[in-house]
């Protein structure tokens, strides 16, 4: 598991991708704060600090799924398609492969996000660990969903297309379900991470449970699949 | 100790059976050859044993460990049929990654030693994307043995390799056997299987139709021993009598002034034939016996 995770992390990190993602996270945080200060002149000190981090959380909520799908939609099915998976399944368990991939991607986003938070803390003069944890919980869910899709659909070209659709639809649907009062569909909000992110306290931790369930389902499918 | 044991191992894709219930036992230290035409089910059988695909029914064990138990994976090496390597990794990178994945990380010196065994030492730092087909094949074999496994599956290890590389790999397989490893290989090169394997199974349409050592297979197919006799000229008075005797003794008779070629079904007939020639006052200079080759046996299936 460790070796697969390390390889996934290194392959994501050694390219231009990581610098680009950190740059996007930083720019969003900086300009959201600047724009917010510009339109709302009477922000308190606390609000002024938080707006940097809220900008970043907002970016992950809106585009995180799209970013992760874009980078990792083929993390499993590319190996199945090119049959490199055959070398992996003959050496280690399928669960190790799945978890290795998951933790490799998670570690990449953890490092990118942590770097961004540390850089933001320089000009925000505060490191908001609560928003960091919320953002990480959402990223964990988004990564688990990406792995699930990559296991479920064996064609990388299809997951690339689906990644864009899911990346756009998931946050839109999530917000709509959180805000709608339609009784027929509003119950679905309880199975999306967005509802729990909107709550106060630590209810966002439920998102980790969803991630676990998605990984469990991915594991069941992957264990039955011929390579 | 038994290296491989299968009981009624089956694989079907939908309603199409590809492997139809194979019972097989391979002892440790054997080089076991698996032969069959394209589509006979050889690769499917190997893929089931190595965890690449799941059997539809039946059971198997590798090195005494029940199939499906991942703990045995560190003790097996697999060169699968149709598998790509990671284009962005070098040959050395592949060996380091795969050995670590097997739980037995190899040092650079160990990796270089294995690359030397397969003849890739000059390309250790070259990325796999720049490798030719033959080089990829060699690296495929190298990754199968890098973690010093007890049981090695090689799916057509020498197909597509040049003559020198084939000899190199054949020597490697012999060395593996000498060091007590079990090798389970498929091949289309019948000479190679004949030279290397201690036992052979012939597979046809998902079933093993014949299994045994080369001698056992030959004995079974000795019904077609071709004998060539070089002799002194046959006296005219004896020609008809001798021809009559030969026609009753065997088939596919070809006769000329100094040579007789005949196919007999029993070794005893060879001695009787020599006596018959002597009784007809014909000197036998040379007897050449052509035993059935693996190719003959294979084609007969």
Automatic annotation (TrEMBL), chain A:
Bilayer-crossing regions: 12-31, 51-76, 97-123, 129-153, 160-179, 202-222
Listed A to Z, the keywords are: Membrane, Transmembrane, Transmembrane helix
User: What cellular component GO annotations does this protein have?
Assistant: plasma membrane
Report the GO molecular function annotations. Answer: ABC-type transporter activity
One Pfam family here: ABC2_membrane_2
Q: Which domain of life is it from?
A: Bacteria
Q: What is this protein called?
A: ABC transporter permease
Automatic annotation (TrEMBL), chain B:
SMART domains reported for this sequence:
AAA
Question: rRNA-binding among the record's keywords?
Answer: no
- Give a yes or no for keyword Transport in this entry: yes
Question: A GO molecular-function term, please?
Answer: ATP hydrolysis activity
The record's listing under Pfam families reads: ABC_tran, DrrA1-3_C
Name the UniProt key words of this record, in alphabetical order: ATP-binding, Nucleotide-binding, Transport
Q: Where is the ABC transporter domain?
A: 4-230
- InterPro entries in the record, alphabetically? AAA+_ATPase, ABC_transporter-like_ATP-bd, ABC_transporter-like_CS, ABC_transporter_ATP-binding, DrrA1/2-like_C, P-loop_NTPase
Q: Which family does it belong to?
A: Belongs to the ABC transporter superfamily.
Q: What is this protein called?
A: ABC transporter ATP-binding protein
Cite the source lineage: Bacteria, Bacillati, Bacillota, Bacilli, Bacillales
């Amino acid at each position: 598991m460790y070796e697969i995770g390390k390889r996934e992390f290194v392959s994501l990190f050694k390219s231009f991708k990581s610098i680009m993602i950190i740059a996007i996270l930083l720019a969003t945080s900086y300009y959201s704060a600047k724009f917010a200060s510009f339109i709302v002149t009477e922000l308190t000190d606390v609000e002024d600090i938080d707006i940097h981090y809220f900008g970043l959380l907002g970016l992950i909520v809106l585009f995180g799924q799209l970013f992760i799908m874009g980078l990792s939609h083929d993390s499993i099915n590319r190996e199945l398609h090119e049959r490199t998976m055959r070398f992996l399944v003959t050496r280690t368990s399928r669960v190790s492969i799945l978890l290795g991939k998951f933790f490799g991607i998670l570690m990449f986003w953890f490092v990118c996000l942590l770097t961004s938070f540390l850089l933001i803390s320089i000009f925000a003069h505060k490191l908001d660990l609560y928003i960091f944890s919320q953002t990480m919980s959402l990223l964990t869910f988004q990564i688990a969903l990406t792995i699930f899709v990559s296991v479920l659909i064996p064609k990388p070209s299809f997951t690339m297309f689906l990644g864009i659709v899911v990346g756009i639809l998931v946050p839109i649907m999530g917000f709509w379900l959180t805000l709608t009062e339609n009784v027929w569909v509003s119950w679905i909000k309880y199975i999306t991470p967005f509802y729990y992110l909107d709550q106060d306290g630590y209810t966002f931790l439920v998102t980790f449970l969803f991630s676990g369930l998605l990984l469990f389902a991915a594991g069941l499918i992957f264990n039955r699949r011929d390579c | 100790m038994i290296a491989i044991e299968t009981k009624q191992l089956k694989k079907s894709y939908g309603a199409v059976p590809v492997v139809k219930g194979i019972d097989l036992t391979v002892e440790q230290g054997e080089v076991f050859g698996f032969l069959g035409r394209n589509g006979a089910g050889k690769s499917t059988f190997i893929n089931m044993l190595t965890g690449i695909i799941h059997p539809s029914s039946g059971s198997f064990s590798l090195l005494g460990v029940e199939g499906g138990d991942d703990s045995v994976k560190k003790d097996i090496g697999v060169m699968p049929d149709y598998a790509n390597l990671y284009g962005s990794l070098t040959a050395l990178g592949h060996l380091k990654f795969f050995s670590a994945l097997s739980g037995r990380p190899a040092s650079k010196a160990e990796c270089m030693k294995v690359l030397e065994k397969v003849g890739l030492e000059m390309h250790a730092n070259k990325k796999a994307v720049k490798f030719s087909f033959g080089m990829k094949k060699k690296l495929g074999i190298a990754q199968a043995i890098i973690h010093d496994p007890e049981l090695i599956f090689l799916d057509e290890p020498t197909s597509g390799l040049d003559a020198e590389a084939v000899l190199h790999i054949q020597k490697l397989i012999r060395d593996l056997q000498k060091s007590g490893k079990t090798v389970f290989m498929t091949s289309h090169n019948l000479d190679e299987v004949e030279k290397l394997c201690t036992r052979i199974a012939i597979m046809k349409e998902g079933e093993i139709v014949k299994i045994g050592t080369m001698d056992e297979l030959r004995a079974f197919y000795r019904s077609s021993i071709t004998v060539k006799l070089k002799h002194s000229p046959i006296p005219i008075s004896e020609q008809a009598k001798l021809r009559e005797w030969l026609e009753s003794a065997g088939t596919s008779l070809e006769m000329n002034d100094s040579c007789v070629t005949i196919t007999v079904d029993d070794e005893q007939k060879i001695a009787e034939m020599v006596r018959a020639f002597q009784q007809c006052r014909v000197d036998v200079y040379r007897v050449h016996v052509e035993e059935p080759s693996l190719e003959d046996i294979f084609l007969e299936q």
